[in-house]
Amino acid sequence: MSKRHPRETMTPRERVLAALYGKKTDRIPVGNPTSVATVECMEACGVYFPDAHLDAHKMATLAATGYEILGYDTIAPYFSVQQEAAAFGCEMTWGDIDAMPDVRKNPFNSPEEIEISGDFLERPATRTVIEAIRLLKKEYGDHVCLVGKVMGPWTLSYHLYGVQKLLMDTILDPAKVHGFMKKLKQVPVMFANAQLEAGADVVTLADHATGDLVGPNTYRDFLLPVHQEITPQIKGPAILHICGRTTDRMSHIAKAGFAAFHFDSKNDTLEAKTIAAREGLLLVGNINNPDVLYAGTPEDVKKRVFEAAEAGIEIIGPECAVPLRTPNANLKAVVEAVREYCFR
Ligand SMILES: [Zn+2]
To answer: What is the 3-state secondary structure (H, E, C) of 167-190?
Structure first.
């Protein structure tokens, strides 16, 4: 893919950062706040899952294909959602070429059992992400937007304590849920700041309080106050990522202090944009993964990209980490469609 269109006057980094700060751009940026690593990208660069999760050079090489091969304006090296869980000592399945890592069991039963040790950022799983960003900064830092990623305290509680138990406790033992949030809120702050110091331009904070599992009041009561504490402590722009249905909590999310919100295609694009515009929230997304990017054609992708562009989505990209067997042709079609739309 050609790196630069003749009508483009900004670097990818300038373009994404301008969009995040609400400034004018030469075209809509194409961003990937989660992961666009595919099996095709692995084959092209010779680095494969699961090796790329725990080796900084391999992680950086595979992440760079997002720019080098797919033509995106961002490079995001943290592919999964489990690096912190591994650093907490959870027993891991590191997955395969086409399977993301996962925790085997949730080892902690209460917030008191969790210890955040002084060397948390030196553990292999966390250190790899920080080192990969440092390597990418040297190679791409003044040209491409580097995106770090951290898990928020809600998602960390899913991994360390268990999704079902946490959800039950929102009703049976809310004090315990607040206890997990209080204990874990420092983790995304320190991991995000280490990634920003290493050279990330922006950090995604994933905290999966999705409408598929919890109602809008759960976000308001358990997450919002903690997010409002976390965001001013992160020394750079942060993008909140929650997949699934979120339209019903976007007005709460708008008050949390994030630079933007990365949202899912389960939300009507125009309805989401209407709420976000009213609340002063910037949106990233929301091209459907399973039906469009994975199973669709470049024509289907173009149609969805035009809808997102027409709705005024500030940064266009996949709704979440893409399925690993997603065809690169469809991911490249996002960039091609954005150029076609903006330079008509
Ligand atoms: Zn997601």
So the answer is: HHHHHHCHHHHHHHHHHHCHHHHH
Which residue carries 């091209």 as its tokens?
287
Taking the centre of ligand 1 as the mean of its atom positions, its distance from the CA of residue 321, in whole angstroms, is 6
Which pLDDT belongs to residue 2? 53
The overall pTM is greater than 0.90:
yes
216 contact partners, CB below 8 Å, separation of at least 6? 248, 249, 252
Give the separation between CA 184 and CA 206, rounded to whole angstroms.
Answer: 14
- Rounded to an integer, the average pLDDT of 27-33 is 96
Of 149, 45, 48, residue with least CA distance to 98: 48
Rounded Cα–Cα distance for residues 56 and 37 (Å)? 15
Per DSSP (E only), the strands in 121-229 are 145-151, 202-206
Q: Are 72 and 332 in contact (CB under 8 A)?
A: no
Average pLDDT of span 93-97 = 97
Coil vs helix vs strand at 285: strand
List, in order of start, the domains of the chain with CATH numbers.
12-342 (3.20.20.210)
Q: Using the mean position of ligand 1's atoms as its centre, give its distance from the Cα of residue 240 in Å.
A: 10
The alpha carbon of 9 and the centre of ligand 1 are apart by a number of angstroms equal to 32
- For 48-140, strand residue ranges (E) read 74-75, 92-93, 102-103
Report the Cα–Cα distance between both ends of the chain, in Å, rounded: 19
Q: What is the pLDDT of residue 3?
A: 76
Ligand 1 mean position, distance from CA 243 (Å): 4
